[in-house]
Amino acid sequence: YGRIFDERVATVITVQQGRDNMMKRTILTIAFIFLSIVVANFYLIHCRVSVTHVHNSSLSFFLHQLEYYKKDGINHQSSDIPNVATTSAFDVKENTNETNENIKENENWEITSDSLSKADEDSLADGFINSQISFFESSSYNAKEYQLKLDEVLKPNRDQVSATYSSSSSWIFFKFWAGLCNQYMMFIGAILLAIKEGRNEILEESIQWKDTYGNDNYLQHKNLFDVVHWNSFYPQLPRIVQYEKELHPDIKVRNSQEKIEGEIYSKAAFLQVNVTGDPFEEAKNPTPLGQNLRQTMNQYRMLARRVDEKALSKANVPSKQDIGFELIMKSAFRPHPEIQGFIDRFVKDMEKVHQSKDRKEVGDGFMVIHARVEPDMQNHPVCKDKKVKNVTDIIESIYSRYPEPPVSWVVMIFNRELVEALVTGEKTDVMRTNKELTKSFQDQSIQELTAYNLKVINDCLENGLWNGRVRVKEAGSKYVEKISKDPWYRHYSNIVGGVLNFFMAIQSDIFVGTEVSSYSTLVVNSRFYREKRSNYFYRPDGLYWVTPPNGTKPHRFVC
Predict the structure, then answer these.
(1) What's the rounded Cα separation, in Å, for the pair 457 and 449?
(2) What is the maximum span of the chain, computed from C-alpha positions, in angstroms?
(3) What pLDDT is stored for residue 417 in this prediction?
(4) Could you give the 3-state DSSP secondary structure of residue 101?
(5) Which residues contact 478 (CB under 8 A, 6 or more apart)?
(6) What is the Cα–Cα distance from 252 to 275, expressed in whole angstroms?
């Protein structure tokens, strides 16, 4: 019995030791897996952050090509781009519904649970499933951190060994004018011309946007648009850099300041040629870009014609201009993070309101309606047969296409200041000097129709659409003046509100505009390149679907 007892005790001890060893191995395995996950996440984040700052290296070139040709879903092959045989750890998992070119390597633009859109739960009326990740959703924006990055990326490129200037730089010779999107076309034309002429850098001081119908001043590009993000697309797109006297001896740049609500701000610079004779012959560093407005607009129109006629196939070899244009339309051109913050706040506030209401028989997401019925358009002589001047007719055409609400809320875009100025007679000095507006203000029929349209829009804002089931809101300049804490953005709310409206329209689930407007056309084409196909033009005979699923090219603006 004693021997049997000893054997049983030994067996129990052995089993217990085995269990103890198994428990230790289990704990060690769990700890190892946890540590591996932490290290892997740190490595990926570190790679993502560090790559952002390597703008001029061959690694940066490789990654941008990899993103553009693989992650953006474009199968182009170009002779001046190296073949890629391996996959980078930097690659982000591809979304089959909508490409994730939207998620670039800027650590201020991260994927969070807040970024996930509800639009992918429902196929809207046209059967499209929208992206799970919003291109415009920024999880955070730190003004000081962004300014540090901006200061860094604005530095002209220097050779690391000889410390000599190594880029072919240019300045835009003319100033933009007219409305926001006409200026946008001029900007695109200037970029296409720079690509054609092999210019690697463009002076930021020479890119000036006019606050048309606002203060009528010229404003700095870097205050309106995200230069940090844009420069990450070099070398496919020329970098935007700041003027440095020793590097750019053939021009002079005079800076000045203005005071707004007690705060001091830099104004758009004054550029002066610093060579004797014809600057297009004598200026070498930097060189002037675009002898006149017509030259840059022709670049834009020629590319638009080529796209329209050839309907560029993914199998064709694109030119450098084709690649640059597609990058601009897809994602390279986006608003300054401050303005994007206004958009994010507006959208989130509307989503909260929607979620607090009864959601029965109402779609998700939002629609943007560009009501181009301002007095200057009423009197504009081009494409009269395609115009719809009455807001009621626009709304009825939408009801005809969508008997039931396809969205939960609507943003109405129009220039309230211009419309109210005609109705009230309280015109600004800028409005009085505009010939088109002056002519419209003197036309009684235009006055009556404008007063009617304003009444209809205000009724929509108060009572909603689809019998009050869908809320209607305005954004634009009034919204900027209401929420911005920065005096500069409030002071220049006219153009800032225009930028806000433009990119909110690109972000929308459904867009309704008019083909007689460059604004609507650029919104539609930007959405086309981002695979957002629910785009319509209102015409006298109803809504026209501009970008159906089988469409192979963007809309060509001819009005």
Answers:
(1) 12
(2) 121
(3) 86
(4) helix
(5) 416, 493, 497
(6) 10
Question: In terms of Cα–Cα distance, which of 229, 77, 46 is closest to 141?
Answer: 229
Kindly write down the DSSP assignment for every residue of 173-205, as one continuous string: -S---SSHHHHHHHHHHHHHHHHHHT--EEEGG
* CA separation for the pair 420, 458 (Å, rounded): 11
Give the C-alpha separation, 280 to 52, whole Å.
35
Mean pLDDT in consecutive groups of 10 residues from the start of the chain, 559 residues: 46 52 70 67 44 36 38 35 28 33 33 33 30 37 93 84 66 89 93 94 96 90 98 97 94 95 95 94 92 82 82 66 94 97 94 69 89 88 91 98 96 92 80 73 88 97 96 95 96 96 98 95 96 97 94 88
Collapse the DSSP code of 10 into the 3-class scheme (helix H, G, I; strand E, B; otherwise coil) and give the result: helix
**Residues whose CB falls within 8 Å of the CB of residue 548, separated by 6 or more in sequence, listed in order:** 533
Q: How many degrees, rounded to 5, is the angle at CA 57 between CA 40 and CA 189? A: 115
At 493, the amino acid letter reads: S
The torsion of the CA quartet 228, 230, 233, 239, rounded to 10 degrees, works out to -90
Q: Quickly count: other Cβ atoms within 10 Å of residue 289's Cβ.
A: 24
Q: What is the pLDDT of residue 250?
A: 95
Query: In the Cβ-directed half-sphere of 22, how many Cα atoms lie within 13 Å?
Result: 6
Do residues 494 and 428 touch, judged by C-beta distance below 8 A?
A: no
pLDDT of residue 431: 72
- The SS3 of residue 332 is helix
Q: Token pair 């606002």 is at which residue?
A: 214
Structure tokens at 250: 């053939």
| End-to-end Cα, the chain, rounded Å | 107
Query: Can you name the residues that pair with 266 across neighbouring β-strands?
Result: 257
- Say which amino acid occupies 483: I
Q: For residue 299, which of 156, 192, 164, 426 has the smallest C-alpha distance?
A: 192
Say which residues have a Cβ less than 8 Å from residue 308's Cβ, sequence separation at least 6: 553, 556
Sign of CA dihedral 339, 342, 346, 351: positive
What pLDDT is attached to residue 359? 55
Q: Within 13 Å of residue 223, how many CA atoms lie on the same side as its CB?
A: 22
Residue among 344, 332, 343, 341 nearest 106 (CA)? 332
3 state SS of 241: strand
Distance CA 450, CA 221 (A): 33
3-state secondary structure of 18: helix
C-alpha span between 521 and 531 (Å, rounded): 15
Which residue in the block uniquely carries the two structure tokens 């009684």? 444
Report the distance separating Cα 474 and Cα 342, nearest Å: 13
Q: Are the beta carbons of 381 and 524 closer than 8 angstroms?
A: no
Tell me, what's the pLDDT at 19? Answer: 58
Q: Which two tokens stand for residue 545?
A: 């679907």
The model scores a pTM over 0.85: no
At 116 the three-state DSSP class reads: strand
468 three-state secondary structure: coil
Residue 478 CA to residue 500 CA, distance in Å, equals 11
The answer to whether 524 and 515 are in contact (CB under 8 A) is: no
Query: Is the CA virtual torsion 262, 264, 265, 270 positive or negative?
Result: positive
**CA 143 to chain CA mean position, Å:** 19
